[in-house]
Design goal:
By secondary structure, the chain is of the alpha+beta class. The chain contains 8 helices and 7 strands.
């Protein structure tokens, strides 16, 4: 395993044809993860929205480049090919069509930044203490992803377990794989482990809650504070009827704490019940009257 890691982080003859092929594969794979509905709200969809997997790609390119300039250009070209391809492949499958490229502006900014990041990142290969300072921002960004995905895992377990473990492993592995000096390896791995532990503890102390208004008082669903409402299984959270001053009417408020399917029941003053099938995700829901 040790030899395989060292091979990946510095032992590959990264020619331009190999880089271009890798960029096409990465772009096509990411697009597929975004297109396949069954992969939404899973670890596999993470590559389509956050940085952690792309950071791994960038570090692999840097470590297998031959000079600062080679590293900068290869990082830039890899992302210049892969990122637009992600959107291009999705166009026929998206209701947005070509408007989907509006989201590319954000990623194009990071593609431009690959030039200085690739150039500076190459200095990590000098195996010096200050090289760890170059790596730390990448560990910090991955820690940020871990905060989000561990929270999603707690909300939607066992989903997101793979990307959560990936973030933790990479935060510890990067210093070991990038540097040869044992002291730098140990110091970097300790920092990565401490950051991962901090992210986990912070999330455990602040468990995820999805708060939203899921229904308004209207002709189809009339209710007020004389009605009562509850979920069949309280593990998914709690619901209540509130008067919202901003809309000057009653709303059905929910604080969801777990993804899944349950039944929401509303009871009017006479005792008559109306039931709704409720499907909960981390940032969305679906409510259907039975």
């Amino acid at each position: 395993m040790k030899d395989l890691i060292k091979k990946a982080f510095g032992g590959i003859d990264l020619t331009w044809p190999k880089l271009i092929i890798a960029a096409v594969i990465a772009g096509a794979f990411t697009a597929a993860m975004a297109i396949i509905p069954g992969l939404h709200y899973t670890s596999f969809n993470a590559i389509t929205v956050t940085f952690e997997v792309w950071i791994l790609f960038g570090i692999l390119i840097i470590m297998n480049s031959k000079s600062n300039l080679d590293s900068a250009l290869k990082c830039f070209v890899f992302f210049l090919i892969s990122q637009p391809l992600v959107y291009l492949i999705q166009v026929p499958f998206s209701t947005l069509g070509w408007q989907l490229f509006g989201y590319y502006k954000y990623w194009f900014m990071w593609t431009i930044l690959c030039l200085p990041m690739g150039y500076i990142g190459y200095y990590m290969k000098q195996n010096k203490w200050w090289g760890l300072l170059i790596l730390l921002p990448m560990i910090a960004i991955t820690a940020g992803s871990l905060l989000g995905y561990f929270s999603m895992f707690l909300f939607s377990s066992p989903r997101y377990i793979l990307i959560t473990l990936f973030c933790i492993c990479m935060m510890i592995l990067y210093p070991i794989a990038v540097f040869d000096d044992k002291k730098i390896q140990k110091a970097g791995a300790a920092i990565g482990a401490a950051a991962a532990a901090a992210a986990v503890i912070i999330t455990l102390l602040n468990p995820p809650v999805y708060s939203t208004e899921i229904m308004g008082n209207n002709e189809e669903h009339p209710f007020d504070d004389t009605y009562s409402v509850y979920l069949d299984d309280s593990k998914y959270g709690n619901v209540d009827i509130r008067y919202v001053a901003g809309v000057e009417d009653y709303m059905l408020h929910a604080d969801f704490r777990k993804a899944g399917k349950t039944v929401l029941t509303m009871v009017d003053p006479s005792g008559a019940k109306t039931e709704y099938d409720l499907t909960i995700e981390r940032d969305t829901y679906r409510l259907t009257k039975k």
